[in-house]
């Protein structure tokens, strides 16, 4: 019985601490959304499933051997050793995570599952009221936590789909998140 009580106590503490950290963990993404002047009252769509961090890692690296794409551009912030450390932490994370309204409290987002995107039912539902669609990855800390990097893809609910895929690099300056650099996906552009 004691073991069960201890286990419940540990799980409850963990859930409470994760819930408290959520808002702070996503301050950088919320600051980015604010900088984009996204109307918080106008409905927009967020893909419920968080983006896979491997995409953001690939874009930041500037190429990958699997797809035989190489990009001559490397961010001045790129450091091979720091990138490898970030890869060790984030590339093998396979736990599926979802965005929730608590993550973006100031926005009128509709949370759509990826599976239902751009099929006939989706088009029927959003054809008359097109809106922006955002696909966002979990933020990753880079170079001894000096920077936050996340993937931010955007499009519209119409037939255009995802039109821009990019990573956002941010740094905290005087307790305020600022965009340091935006790097577009070389595969889509």
Q: Write the H/E string, N to C.
A: HHEHEEHEHEEEEE
Mean pLDDT: 81
Question: What characterizes the major β-sheet?
Answer: 7 strands, mixed
Helix content: 25-40%
Which parts are unreliable, with pLDDT below 50 for 5 consecutive residues or more?
9-23
Total number of domains: 1
What is the total tally of β strands?
9
Structure in a nutshell:
Keywords: Signal. 32% of the residues lie in helices and 27% in strands. With 189 residues, the chain is an alpha+beta fold.
Description:
Keywords: Signal. Residues 1-19 form the signal peptide. This protein is of the alpha+beta class. The chain has one domain. Helices cover 32% and strands 27% of the residues. It is built from five helices and nine strands; from the N terminus they run H-H-E-H-E-E-H-E-H-E-E-E-E-E. It has helices at residues 2-25, 27-35, 53-61, 80-90, 120-126, and strands at 44-47, 63-64, 69-70, 109-112, 132-136, 140-142, 147-156, 162-173, 176-184. Strands 1, 4, 5, 6, 7, 8 and 9 form a seven-stranded mixed β-sheet that branches. A two-stranded antiparallel ribbon has the order 2-3. Strand 7 (147-156) and strand 8 form a beta hairpin. Helix 3 runs antiparallel to helix 4 (80-90). The protein starts with a helix and ends in a 5-residue tail after the last strand. The relative contact order is 0.20.
